[in-house]
Sequence to fold (67 residues):
Amino acid sequence: MATYTNEERMGHVRTNVELEPGEQCALCRCFKSGKFPFCDGMHRQLPGELGPVIVKAAEPKPTPPPS
Ligand code: FES
Fold:
């Protein structure tokens, strides 16, 4: 399950998101989400075509068998 923490860094709030391999999250770029910085679907009620940024953690690549 995705987890996040907020931290202050040089006077600014920074959000760190940790994802499990294959997991994804949607980041808001309309600035109207009640769960900002995460998308809560509010963009669907706005004019225009703007939607979230989808971030996905890569799955680990299978290890090739020894030759
Ligand atoms: S709520 Fe802002 S992009 Fe979805």
